[in-house]
């Protein structure tokens, strides 16, 4: 039975989520820790177990990517992205999102695309194409690109959860990658004819008349004009080998070592495999590329990644403590609803992720809840796109890229939700959820 204490404890969880979501990052993790303190010390609840395996995978991946950034590998990749964007300027509405997506998938963080967004806006404006179309789709697709990346924190969370049910990294990628690119196409098409043409846009004409906008000169950035170092190229190669090693060994039971313990055969867990391979890859990049020690943790990837770890730690501990205690209640009241109408669970995932601002945190919290409610792992892998609603309320990428579009066509809107990114975001999530469910039936 649901009593008063249940509702008080649920209120603690929701308030902490709301407060943490407002501050994001470390604030999100701190709010989670505060909530755990109230539930345990105030209500006497038994604390749940933080997702240690997930946190260790994320830490190892962040360490490796940070070292790659220190070697100059990320700047090298961004330079390649800029060259590709300028190669097909008339198709920028499709090329922009696809190029941004590919680089995010390879590196595992949307950071790499942030340096490319200004080029997307510049190339579109130079071709008299409404920049809002390419910019909005690029930001959405790059931001959700982590669902198709073997190196992302969100994928680490998914693998850490689903490996207990026999799903390997390759199994999840076999669903998430085709789902992702189908959804990318849907997002691009949703904005391809959006709004009037640039030369008829009232805001753009106003900026031209008032001198706020001058014709852009398509020039190459420093990343393109400067020849990438040998270390940067080698770092990218070693990084790629590390990714392939994780996928190859992780997808084959015969390649993973096993041991007999107390009469039972125990095989190397996939999360442990990813952790050790990523740390080993980081060391190889450090040694071979001679990365200075002061660059290991000084880059933006390390800082943002560590903030993400704190967020996942605190909030997942809070929700885990609450749902572990009341698991029987949720299974009793909601398992039939979730099983008979999975679309309801998808809507819940989307709404929850829209206020958490972190797909990794949303995945870490919502996937175990879905499993506890009786939803199959196959279904949850398929509908994973519904956990990417962090675009609903504009965040850093949306706000920054609105400023990158000097023509004024990309807008945040006056009512919070009526911004330029809403249409491609909804198109991506709706099509991605439907396509992912269908693909998971065939691949898993």
UniProtKB/TrEMBL annotation:
InterPro entries: Anaer_Dcu_memb_transpt
Membrane topology annotation: Multi-pass membrane protein
Catalytic activity: fumarate(in) + succinate(out) = fumarate(out) + succinate(in); L-aspartate(in) + succinate(out) = L-aspartate(out) + succinate(in); (S)-malate(in) + succinate(out) = (S)-malate(out) + succinate(in)
Keyword Repeat: no
Chain segments annotated as transmembrane: 28-45, 52-74, 94-120, 140-166, 172-193, 232-250, 270-289, 301-319, 339-358, 365-385, 421-439
NCBIfam families to which the protein is assigned, alphabetical: Dcu, PRK09412.1, PRK12489.1
Keywords assigned: Cell inner membrane, Cell membrane, Membrane, Transmembrane, Transmembrane helix, Transport
Name of the molecule in the record: C4-dicarboxylate transporter
Protein function: Responsible for the transport of C4-dicarboxylates.
Any matching Pfam family: DcuA_DcuB
Species annotation: Parasutterella secunda
Family indicated by similarity: Belongs to the DcuA/DcuB transporter (TC 2.A.13.1) family.
Intracellular or extracellular location(s): Cell inner membrane
């Amino acid at each position: 039975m649901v009593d008063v204490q249940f509702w008080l404890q649920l209120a603690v969880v929701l308030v902490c989520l709301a407060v943490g979501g407002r501050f994001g990052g470390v604030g999100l993790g701190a709010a989670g820790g505060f909530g755990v303190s109230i539930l345990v010390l105030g209500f006497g609840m038994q604390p749940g177990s933080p997702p240690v395996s997930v946190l260790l995978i994320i830490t190892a991946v962040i360490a490796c990517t940070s070292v790659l950034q220190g070697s100059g590998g990320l700047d090298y990749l961004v330079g390649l992205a800029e060259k590709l964007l300028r190669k097909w300027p008339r198709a920028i509405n499709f090329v922009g999102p696809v190029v941004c997506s590919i680089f995010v998938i390879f590196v595992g963080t949307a950071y790499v695309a942030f340096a490319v967004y200004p080029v997307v806006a510049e190339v579109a404006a130079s071709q008299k194409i409404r920049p809002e179309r390419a910019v909005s789709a690029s930001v959405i697709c790059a931001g959700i690109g982590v669902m198709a990346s073997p190196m992302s924190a969100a994928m680490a969370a998914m693998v850490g959860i689903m490996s207990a049910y026999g799903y390997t990294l390759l199994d999840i990628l076999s669903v998430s990658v085709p789902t992702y690119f189908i959804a990318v196409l849907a997002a691009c098409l949703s904005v391809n004819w959006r709004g009037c043409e640039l030369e008829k846009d009232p805001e753009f004409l106003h900026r031209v008349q008032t001198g706020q906008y001058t014709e852009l000169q398509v020039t190459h950035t420093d990343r393109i004009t400067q020849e990438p170092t040998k270390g940067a190229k080698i770092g990218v190669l070693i990084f790629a080998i590390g990714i392939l090693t994780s996928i190859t060994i992780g997808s084959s039971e015969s390649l993973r070592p096993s041991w007999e313990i107390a009469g039972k055969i125990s095989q190397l867990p996939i999360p442990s495999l990813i952790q050790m391979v990523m740390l080993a890859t980081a060391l190889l990049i450090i040694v071979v590329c001679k990365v200075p020690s002061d660059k290991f943790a000084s880059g933006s990837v390390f800082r943002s990644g560590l903030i993400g770890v704190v967020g996942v730690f605190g909030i997942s501990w809070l929700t885990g403590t609450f749902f572990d205690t009341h698991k029987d209640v949720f299974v009793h009241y909601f398992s039939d609803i979730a099983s008979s109408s999975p679309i309801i669970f998808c809507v819940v995932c989307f709404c929850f992720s829209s206020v958490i601002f972190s797909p990794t945190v949303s995945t870490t919290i919502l996937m175990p809840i879905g499993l506890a409610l009786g939803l199959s792992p196959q279904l949850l892998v398929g509908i994973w796109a519904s956990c990417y609603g962090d675009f609903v309320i504009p965040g850093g990428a949306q706000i920054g890229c609105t400023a990158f579009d000097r023509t004024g066509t990309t807008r945040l809107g006056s009512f919070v939700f009526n911004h330029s990114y809403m249409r491609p975001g909804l198109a991506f999530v709706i099509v991605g959820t439907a396509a992912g469910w269908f693909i998971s039936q065939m691949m898993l």
